Amino acid sequence: MIIVLKPNCTVEQLNHFTEGLKHDYDVKVNTWVGTQSTVLGLIGDTSAIDIDYIAAQDFVESVKRVQEPYKKANRKFHPDNTVITLPGGQKIGDGSLSIMAGPCSVETEEQICEVAARVKAAGAQFLRGGAFKPRTSPYAFQGLKADGLELLREARKKTGLPIVTEIMSAAHLPLFEDVDIIQVGARNMQNFELLKELGKIRKPILLKRGLSSTIEELLMSAEYIMAGGNDQVILCERGIRTYETYTRNTLDISAVPILKRLSHLPVIVDPSHASGIAWLVEPLAMAAVAAGADGLIIEVHNNPAKALSDGAQSLTPDQFDHVAKRVFTAAKLLRTEG
């Protein structure tokens, strides 16, 4: 149940009201104080609560029962947008456009440091790179693992860019202690034991939508992390599997405004995995910006033809320069008009 209080509700009325709800109905009451209103989220068996009685209180603006199974990720409980702020001051979800860029796989120190310098010069605020790589084939390159993480740290030292990289197992968490943003890939979106462990840490989690998952399932996976106490979750639309075979996946661009309406969490888009084709990255990135995405995650490699993974969807640094200019210009124009 959600109860929205009027702006003139006093602290004394709020405290008396919430304590009464807890005592009379044995429910948990979460309180969110926004810029325009105060929202109460009642968790538990609310079937015995008389909505008409609640609505009759002169300090109550509105009251309604909630059907969605996710509470902490729900905008109804948290009307203000969540903004993820990193120690270095970088923000995601504050109205600006955030870009994470870098290679699918970390291969060598020269490669990752060169790409990091180039994407930073083009305006990217975060360096992405895979150290642990989940691959469909057991014979494909699986990543440099711990050595790859060390190379990412070296690139961060040289450029100052926070690093974003994927975790595949809760057993690897000690290796990720100084990773700035931990990514949960599409294949692990419903690895609930991993999500529970990520809920125990206080670090931003980039949660990618599973290739066959619904929007509600993505939000429920976010709920697993948030239920553990970690509310620093970033949602990522990266394309879903459909009957179309021309592209690697099908970008569900409608998911962006839907997620922004249903949830307060930042939403970014991965046009690289959504298409699997380098020339499609630019138009899909532009579409994501137009749809209201808070950011993009784009694969960039200094020599895509020789990349150890996903070279076909990777941009060269020069191509990324061009795309970054276009998306930043579009974001500035659209958000100024908005």
Automatic annotation (TrEMBL):
Enzyme class: transferase
Organism listed in the record: Candidatus Caccousia stercoris
InterPro entries associated with the record: Aldolase_TIM, Class-I_DAHP_synthase, DAHP1/KDSA, DAHP_snth_FXD, DAHP_syn_2
Protein name: 3-deoxy-7-phosphoheptulonate synthase
Source species taxonomy: Bacteria, Bacillati, Bacillota, Clostridia, Eubacteriales
Keywords: Transferase
Listed SUPFAM superfamilies: Aldolase
The keyword Nucleotide-binding appears for this protein: no
Coiled-coil regions, chain positions: none
Pfam families: DAHP_snth_FXD, DAHP_synth_1
Domain DAHP synthetase I/KDSA: 84-327
Enzyme Commission number(s) of this protein: 2.5.1.54
GO biological process, any: aromatic amino acid family biosynthetic process
Start and end residues of each DAHP synthase ferredoxin-like domain: 1-68
